[in-house]
Structure formats: C-alpha cells, structure tokens
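Try this one yourself first.
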C-alpha cells in the first residue's frame, strides 16, 4: 500500500480504539472528535501519495470558527495564511474553511505515530486554541464583514440552487489553481488535465484528463473519460471486472465502468447537490483524490493489467491477501490484548522466562 493508505488504515484503527473518535469521510480519509468541555471539534484528514503523507488537524466546525477565520483573512487582506510553528514543527493554516495545523508524516513510521498519538493531539489542540485566542484578539474591534458577491474570491460558499452557481464555483477553483481548461457550456462541463509522474494514458503520454460535469442539477460529477483502453484479446474481461470490483470495494464512493464495445474504462465520483452548498475546497479534494488514485493504481496494478494478465492476476491476489492479513492481524491483536490482560503475574513471569530461554538458545545455535 502507499504511505497515504497506510496512514488511512492507521486512522481507522485509532477511531476503533478510541470511543471519542469516529470515521467521518472516506475521501480524504478523515476521523473526527466531537467537541467536549475544554476540547475543540477536531478532525484528522490524510493526504499524500505512495511516498508522502500529511495529516491535517482541522477545527471542522462550520459556524463560529469558520466565520472567525474569514474575519482574520479579511483583516490581513489575504486569501490564505500559512506558516510553520517553530516550537512544534507543525504548519499553521488559516483559510476560508477555518483553522488547521499540518503534521508532515512522510518520514514518520505509522507505529511511531501511533505511539505518539496522544502527545501529537495534545500539541495540535494547544496550538489551535492559541490560534483561536489570537484570532479573537485580532478581530475583536472589527465590525461584521458585509456579505460578498458570489463571484468574488472571498465567497466561502455559493448556493447550488441552479447550474450556473455550480458553474461559478468550479470556474473559481480552476482560476485559483491557474489551470488551463475548456468550458463546454453547451454540454455543461469543464475539461482540464495534469502532467503525471506514473500514469500513462492510451496515447502513451504522461497526462491525465479530468471532466467536471454539472449538467445534472442534483449532482456534480467528476470523471476521467478514456482513463484506460483495454484490448480484450490481450486482457480478459473477467479479470478487468475483478480489478474494478476490488478498487470499488476499497474506495466505496468510487464508480468504475468498462465499455464492452470498445474497452474504455473510466472512473467517476458524484457529489450530491440537492439544496446543499458546494465550495472550491470540495472540488479540490475530489480532483486531488482522482489524481492520486490514478498515479498510485497505475503503478500498483493497471500498468501490469494492460500488458500481462497472469502477472496482474497474481498482483491482484496479493493485494487481496494483504488486505485479509491486515484484518486478521487486527482481530488477532485485539484477542491477544484481551488474553494478556487476564493473565496473572506468575503466568506473565513464566512466559517471559520462556522467551528469555529462547533468546539464549538462538544466540548459541544461530543460523
């Protein structure tokens, strides 16, 4: 698995082991802690790739804290504030979503993070509380900020009552990121792309194309047309279907489709709209996930699936076996912890004596 997936699994385990934490979203993988006395409403989200992982500790409340962050940005005439805290090494971020601190886990083993979890949470809580207190001092004499026009960069959310409002949000996101794009107004969609490190498209180019379709008033669709083109004479349809089933099991919000007439495989993610709201950060999260998914799964499996069915089948089996082993190990550890807790001191001492004897034997008769 990639480092991002390793940390996603770890956060899931932490949520299972701590009563005050629960899984909030699958993409990005996020666990959250409800606000209690003397604690903030905190969430932890993981972003990254095969070799990188960053954990975002966010005050996820969409009310007072979000409004306070916007006032700070308005006072300093900035769209985003980002700086490193020298004492903790965490990166502070204030944007229109609120307050956050970021922990760079790229060079930290998941086992080390798990052992330091409570200490890291304590540090993040302390730093975020200091941020909030400082923000209150900064804006205490400021009048309430007037409502901004939906077309301005300061607009935190835009109502989704019609297609044009969603159009504005997506276009705002693309302009903020300075992406080159094509706005197909007739079909109500945006088309843009990225250069990639691992993924190679059907034209043998390291480039990924993404389409954001807002033609349906009830949802916003992110898709990758012609993500892959399969030759069924070279790769069996049933094997491709098995790979699709595996990834849809692993990422339950993800849809994958395979056209049997021409071998086109594409992925899509739908965000329900209804009477809710949409923000550029939501668009960014979906786009970032699609890019990360395409990069990591091409390297992990699809590059093999396109050229060598037998090797791909073997690799798929390994991925499934690794997943089963992770689940079994998690269950075994819980069972072991339960059994160990019930041992008497005499039984524990006897086990330690056996282990010590085994160590001495290994030293004498080593391989």
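Now uncover the answer:
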């Amino acid at each position: 698995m990639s480092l991002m997936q390793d940390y996603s699994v770890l956060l899931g385990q932490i949520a299972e082991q701590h009563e005050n934490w629960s899984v909030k979203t699958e993409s990005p993988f996020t666990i959250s802690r409800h606000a209690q006395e003397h604690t903030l409403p905190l969430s932890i989200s993981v972003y990254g790739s095969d070799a990188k992982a960053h954990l975002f500790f966010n005050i996820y409340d969409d009310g007072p804290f979000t409004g306070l962050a916007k006032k700070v940005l308005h006072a300093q005439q900035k769209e985003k504030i980002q700086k490193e805290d020298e004492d903790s090494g965490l990166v502070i971020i204030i944007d229109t979503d609120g307050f956050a601190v970021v922990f760079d886990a790229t060079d930290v083993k998941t086992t080390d993070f798990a052992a330091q979890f409570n200490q890291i949470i304590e540090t993040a809580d302390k730093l975020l509380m200091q941020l909030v207190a400082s923000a209150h001092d900064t804006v205490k004499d400021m009048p309430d900020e007037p409502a901004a026009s939906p077309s301005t960069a300061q607009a935190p959310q835009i109502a989704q009552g019609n297609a044009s409002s969603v159009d504005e949000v997506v276009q705002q996101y693309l302009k903020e990121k300075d992406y080159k794009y094509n706005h197909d107004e007739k079909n109500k969609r945006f088309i843009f792309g990225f250069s990639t490190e691992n993924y190679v498209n059907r034209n043998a180019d390291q480039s990924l194309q993404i389409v954001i379709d807002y033609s349906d008033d009830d949802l916003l669709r992110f898709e990758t047309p012609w993500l892959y083109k399969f030759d069924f004479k070279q790769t069996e349809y049933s094997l491709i279907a098995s790979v699709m089933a595996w990834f849809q099991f692993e990422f339950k919000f993800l849809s994958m489709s395979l056209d049997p007439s021409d071998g086109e495989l594409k992925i899509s993610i739908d965000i329900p709209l209804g009477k809710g709201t949409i923000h550029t950060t939501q668009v960014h999260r979906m786009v970032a996930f699609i890019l990360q998914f395409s990069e990591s799964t091409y390297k992990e499996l699809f590059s093999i699936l396109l050229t060598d069915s037998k090797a791909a089948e073997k690799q798929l089996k390994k991925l499934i076996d690794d997943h089963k082993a992770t689940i079994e190990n998690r269950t075994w550890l819980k069972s072991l912890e339960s059994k160990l807790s019930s041992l008497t001191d005499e039984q524990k001492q006897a086990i330690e004596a056996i282990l010590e004897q085994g160590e001495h034997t290994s030293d004498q008769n080593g391989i």
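Discussion: The radius of gyration is 24 Å. The domain at 3-139 is CATH 3.30.1460 (Yope Regulator; Chain: A,).
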